């Protein structure tokens, strides 16, 4: 059977698996806003609490709870109410079986047709997008999608102890990829993306007024231009892989 020529026009459920609070908002909040507006139920799975982030003297034991609250508020700005945190240490993620199992658990719980995550490949043109945690989560998520979540004999405790049946994800969208092949026009929902980003106070409050919006829209304008959208449009780009 031939693979689909492009991503599904609409899915019932989507799961976004990212390393840190704010990752989904910088890279994908416009896309998520478009999905929720058309009725897709979106869940966020954030692997760390972002406790190694920030730009001031906030005590480290307070940073994680602050960033969890920021992410929940940011999610609400784009229509997402189901936000889950795995609690792994920020900046110290490794490709482990435990992480694969924990992501597989969420996939089996949510049963999404689409998973959005970060690329496991380094983007040399924009090194900040290729934080080691981002690449680790991308690779771990892909391994959870295939083969772990769909294989009833992988992590058998998920079925035996938790009653979580195997689940096959149809497609994966990877952000910050050197192979991006699908652009989403987010011009009409950019205000919702910027509202989401503004909730990440611990990460953006050090920027001068207006600089965040200028930076983000400039970045998205270039993305739109690269992918052939008309002048003045804004886009987010992904590498879409069919995995069913």
Structure description:
The protein has one domain: LmbE-like (Rossmann fold). Helix content is 40%, strand content 18%. It has a 7-stranded mixed sheet, with helices on both faces. The chain has 244 residues and is of the alpha/beta class. The mean pLDDT is 96. Helix 1 packs across helix 6. It has 8 helices and 7 strands, in the order E-H-E-H-E-H-E-H-H-E-E-H-H-H-E.
What features would you highlight for this structure?
244 residues; alpha/beta; Rossmann fold; seven-stranded mixed sheet; 8 helices; 40% helix; 18% strand; globular
Write out the strand line-up for the largest beta sheet, numbering strands in chain order: 3-2-1-4-5-7-6
What CATH architecture do you see? 3-Layer(aba) Sandwich
Please tell me how large the radius of gyration is.
17 Å
Number of DSSP helical runs: 8
Order of helical and strand elements: EHEHEHEHHEEHHHE
Mean pLDDT: 96
């Amino acid at each position: 059977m031939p693979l689909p020529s492009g991503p599904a026009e609409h899915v019932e459920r989507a799961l976004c698996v990212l390393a840190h609070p704010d990752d989904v908002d910088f890279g994908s909040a416009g896309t998520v806003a478009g999905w929720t507006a058309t009725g897709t139920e979106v869940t966020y799975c954030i692997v760390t609490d972002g406790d190694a982030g920030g730009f001031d003297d906030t005590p480290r034991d307070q940073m994680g709870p602050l960033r969890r609250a920021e992410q929940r508020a940011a999610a609400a700005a784009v229509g997402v109410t189901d936000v889950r945190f795995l609690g792994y240490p920020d900046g110290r993620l490794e490709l482990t079986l435990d992480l694969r199992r924990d992501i597989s658990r969420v996939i089996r719980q949510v049963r999404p047709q689409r998973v959005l995550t970060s690329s496991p490949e380094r983007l040399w043109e924009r090194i900040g997008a290729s934080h080691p945690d981002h690449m680790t989560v991308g690779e771990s998520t892909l391994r959870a999608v295939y083969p772990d979540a769909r294989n009833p004999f992988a992590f058998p405790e998920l079925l035996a102890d938790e009653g979580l049946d195997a689940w096959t994800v149809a497609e994966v969208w990877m952000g910050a990829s050197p192979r991006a092949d699908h652009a989403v026009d987010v011009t009409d929902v950019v205000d919702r993306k910027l509202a989401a980003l503004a909730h990440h106070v611990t990460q953006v409050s050090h920027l001068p007024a207006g600089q965040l919006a200028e930076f983000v829209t400039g970045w998205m304008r270039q993305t739109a231009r690269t992918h052939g959208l008309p002048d003045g449009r804004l886009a987010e780009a992904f590498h879409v892989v069919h995995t069913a």
